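Give me structure tokens for this 186-residue protein.
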Amino acid sequence: MKRFLFLDRDGVLNRRLTNDYVKSPEELEILPGVPEALASLRPHFERILVISNQQGIGKGLMTAADLEGIHRVMARELAEAGGQIDDFICCPDRAEKKDNCRKPSAAMALEARKRYPEIRFENTWMIGDTAGDIAFARNLGMHAIMIGEEDIPPELESYHRGRYPELIDFARAFLAEVDKNHNTQA
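Here you go.
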């Protein structure tokens, strides 16, 4: 079975800035354990994509070129540790824009499947740190994983398949489960 991994960016891969946006590579701070987590997860997922709301563009605080520069730096830093990201799919829309592409809308997931037709949402893990990330996963029938301590509505709390302090904690639990299943089938 091919598996796919969708990752939110801010708060999962890099430090989320309070009441601000990462607008330049200098403001980007990869969270501890993320490179190791991605390197260990890479062999178990056909594709690893970042799916991220980036309304800083819609607010005029940065440009699409600024965002691409941030993602080039992030991809390079993660790849150096063996944690390859296949693609970044972002929504620049402001939250108040009618019919926006922001999570929990399915727009970015559909764009991912357009770029990579082999993606099957039922075999996709979405890892995020907000209620919007979990609702996005639920709306598309993905496996949802919550990172961090943000409160989410009870109907979403019951949907996700686990809550972990950081991505590295999920990676360890996932690999232990894969190893356990492999040993029982041997």
